[in-house]
């Protein structure tokens, strides 16, 4: 009998994540991708890698330091994982910079933009401009820090860009000492030079500081100067049971991130060995965590280059999210929801109806209560403003603000305090769990009694990322879902657990069992010769129990098609185990974020959306929601989304039996780019809805005297 839990059937989670970053890097290397979009993808790989170090690599180092030697699902210890990761990450970084230096920078110059270095051939005019810019704009902000017997080695802040230097006293024959200057993040890192020869030139701020660094140490000779950057452990450990005030405890932990253990050092290639030796000693950091970089440090700066005015011919035209036909502008959103359940596909369709749902509820005299979970919101959130207004208008407003949303903790603390000040009842999540579910409940008093309106989604209540992330949202006034929504909030605000659930399934209590049941049901159908098919779209797949269940279903003959954007610990093509499973990843202009689950169920198919991926953290350590989509026309819409993504030949990569990913072989296939097709479809639907709206408006225009004549 096959042991489906055998580690040889699983891929290590962290190595799988690196493959995902490689797929993003492949978009930066793809010559068919517009030039500035290639810069954007390269920037994203750098941002991803920063977070990977601060959280995943840091976590593995903590395990090693604690002597934790339990193996992961692929049979690797933390030490073995770190060894494998260091090799792969160095390869990834080398590929990042060869892509930049050998391909993108020459192409930028050919197309009218040059990124210059301070030691390169600046004209006299450019040199004067740079030096003047330094004295007027940069010099007053800088704080040079020398190290000697009275001045200890300074705190080098996490992710900050710095210039390290060795300096010696001009009057004394003393040994060279270390000094550092932090490149101020409050200033724009990109400085555009005067346009004198028909090509736009930019220079990075650290280059300007390097060129003028002697002005910071007037009595010293500057022996060498090199940019460097460190990454620190930013994985917060919070003892929630012992925390008297969770909000204050998280505030304290955020500050501690700047002091976390140094886990990576990036420094300019060819740096002075004496300078490097000092950094290695003071931080301290091992050889395997040192990255000598041939190019600008912190490639997230390329996103700012992407944002430069002009060069539109080298960028993908921005897509404007389209109107949802069922919710025309200015309509009564509650009336629209009473007519029918409304499915929204973001960012192809605008997120505005979700904001409008809260806004109208805040102003509507018939609305009694608004309850909502918030995981990540934008910096200037209209939803927060609407919730605050609702409380000020006398509504009962309950908001669960998840303070433990990684790297959004500070932002969420600000919003939590603002909501409390406005009179909202704010909950800070549950002890030991993150609340990751996306749900809003509006309770409204109507002529025929109390009616509950619910929004459920796969993505955050963030109006900014809703233009970039693909997500599904459902607006409904289904009585059974309304009852479940009330039960969800009663659980979150108190300890009230309902006796039964109508439609929703929740993690960490029942959701994993629900998925395992649905997979098992498909397996039984296959064994009985009935139709059996699973299609699952998610961000990550690394739960061992789910993967083992998929392997069992595959051996029983269930066809399984997985669309997994990022981490995938499942292996395909294993004889007798996963021959019926395909895995594809789509990396395109929008970030694939929706979770959609289809189970054929012998021709009586069921389709669900969720805030949860198939990961242990989602299924066992978070509050998540799975909701069914039951109206036939809406089920068909979701089925169309899945089908089109399975047919994508442009941005999809297939997982191969050897663990690598390969782009779809386009030969003999129709060219399909799913994201572009969804853009076109959203435009067609919006146009059709506008025509219908105009027709209805004309139909109800009162007749004038002219008409009667």
Overall structural domain count: 4
Going by CATH, the homologous superfamily of the largest domain would be Endonuclease Chain A
Largest sheet: 10 strands, mixed
C-alpha Rg (nearest Å): 28 Å
Q: What is the SS-derived class?
A: alpha/beta
- Our count of helices gives 19
- What is the assembly state of the chains in this entry? single chain
Q: Within the CATH hierarchy, at the fold level, what is the topology of the largest domain?
A: Endonuclease, Chain A
- Second-tier CATH architecture of the largest domain: 2-Layer Sandwich
Spans of at least 5 consecutive residues with low confidence: 240-244, 703-709
What's the helix and strand layout?
Layout: H1 13-29, H2 35-65, H3 78-110, E1 113-116, H4 124-138, E2 145-146, E3 161-169, E4 177-182, E5 190-192, E6 200-204, H5 205-211, E7 220-232, H6 246-256, E8 262-268, H7 273-282, E9 290-293, H8 302-306, H9 333-339, E10 342-346, H10 352-363, E11 367-374, H11 382-392, E12 396-401, H12 409-422, E13 425-427, E14 434-435, E15 439-446, E16 449-457, E17 469-476, H13 479-493, E18 505-507, H14 511-527, E19 533-538, H15 544-555, E20 559-564, E21 581-586, E22 591-592, E23 595-599, E24 606-610, H16 616-620, E25 622-628, H17 632-646, E26 652-655, E27 661-663, H18 674-699, H19 705-708
Parallel strand pairs: 1-6, 8-9, 11-12, 12-13, 14-25, 17-22, 19-20, 20-21
Antiparallel strand pairs: 2-4, 3-4, 3-7, 5-6, 7-8, 10-17, 11-15, 15-16, 16-17, 18-25, 19-23, 21-26, 23-24, 24-25, 26-27
